[in-house]
Amino acid sequence: MAFRLKLVPEHTNIDFFRWQWLTFGLSGVALVAALVVTLIMGLNFGIDFRGGTTIRTESTQALDVAVYREALAPLGLGDVSITQVFDPTFREDQHVASIRIQAQEGQDAIAPEQMASIQSALQEVDPAVKFVSTESVGPKVSGELIWTAIWSVLAGVAAIVVYVWLRFEWQYSVGALVALVHDVGLTIGLFALFQIKFDLAIIAALLTILGYSINDTVVVFDRLRENLIKYKTKPLKDVMNLSANETLSRTVMTSGTTLIALISLLVLGGDVIRGFVFAMTWGVVVGTYSSIYVAKNIVLFLGLDRNKTPKDPAAKFFTEGTQDANP
Questions:
Q1: By the 8 A CB rule, do 98 and 82 touch?
Q2: Residue 98: in which H helix or E strand, if any?
Q3: Which is nearest to 191 in space by CA: 43, 40, 6?
Q4: Domain limits of the chain?
Q5: Which of 101, 83, 97 minimizes the C-alpha distance to 47?
Q6: Of 117, 134, 175, 303, which has the highest C-beta tally within 10 A?
Q7: Cα 287 from Cα 205, distance rounded (Å)
Q8: Considering the chain, what percentage of its residues have pLDDT values greater than 70?
């Protein structure tokens, strides 16, 4: 006998609109609060957006990132990111690290005296360490990266909204847009509130969150469109509840398994990817919430033309059936 794991009963009848004004109101308040916190506290930009210096080191001894970080801590260099570089072409005794240090106040690059103190501090814990190369990112380049990151997120949102508009109706695209703004806004607000380092990895996380959130939203929208054809006289609110309940098992299973992997990375992944994984973990939670409590609420408020033929050919096939099913 086959065993199937069910996190959600096969048939549920949850009224997702029972507390619609409370949930939607809380989402609105949280989004406004996130905007205010971001404007007042600002984001804790990482080296990518503030400028800084990248130092590439090599050593014949096995390196320990934690030991390197402890050695540089007393120098007061600010934000320091240390990662070990792996490459199959490296020799067995070739251990490479990438050290990124934020731009010092009033300087485009680290001064020679500071570079000497950094090298001395590392040589105390690893006498074999050598500085192979040094690169600096000035304020102008980092400023350009900020605008590039902003435009990339906006372009991602715009492309998703156009896709939903073409596949469904404009009401669905508005619901998707509000849900995406909700997810990205709350994520950025959380980073501003706790002053978590915000760098290019977080931009990658935001773009991933957009994709994850819209995927879940489209699943609900697709089921809604099918049910609108099946239940032509049933109130729109009831059809939406039915659609959300029918996709609930899939939503919980997908989000649950994703969170298991993300939480494992959050606990065991180390400092290098912790910010990225934290953003993804929060994004999965808030993205699932917005798919159920935000996106379809907007569609309900705007209303739908129940007499309009769906755009998707699959929906037409669903209503007409196959002509050659019974030759």
A1: yes
A2: strand 95-102
A3: 43
A4: 20-44+142-312, 52-137
A5: 101
A6: 175
A7: 13
A8: 85
Question: Degrees (nearest 5) of the Cα angle 133, 138, 144?
Answer: 120
Task: Compute the chain's Rg from CA coordinates.
Answer: 25
What are the structure tokens assigned to 302, written together?
Answer: 């705007």
> How far apart are the C-alpha atoms of 165 and 200, rounded to whole Å?
29
Q: State pLDDT tens for residues 277-300.
A: 999 999 899 988 888 888 888 888
Contact 94, 58 (CB under 8 A): yes
20-44+142-312 is classed in which CATH architecture?
Up-down Bundle (1.20)
Backbone angles phi, psi at 43, to 5 degrees: -95, 145
Contact assessment for residue 186 and residue 171, using Cβ atoms and an 8 Å cutoff: no
pLDDT, one tens digit per residue, over 84-103 is 877 777 788 888 888 888 77
The residues facing 97 across adjacent strands are 57, 84
In whole angstroms, what is the distance from residue 53 CA to residue 246 CA?
53
In this predicted model, what pLDDT tens digit does every residue of 20-54 receive, in sequence order? 888 888 888 999 999 999 999 988 877 777 777 88
Q: What angle do CA 239, 240, 243 make, to 5 degrees?
A: 85
Binning pLDDT at 50, 70 and 90, where does residue 308 land?
Answer: low
Q: Sheet of 80-85: strands edge to edge?
A: 80-85, 95-102, 52-59, 130-137
Domain pair 20-44+142-312 / 52-137, same fold: no
Q: What does CATH list as the number for 52-137?
A: 3.30.70.3220
**The tokens of 85 are what?**
């570089």
Q: How far apart are CA 16 and CA 18, in angstroms?
A: 6
Do residues 295 and 161 make contact, with C-beta atoms less than 8 angstroms apart? no
Reported as a single tens digit per residue, the pLDDT across 158-209 is 888 888 888 888 888 888 889 889 999 999 999 999 888 888 888 888 888 8
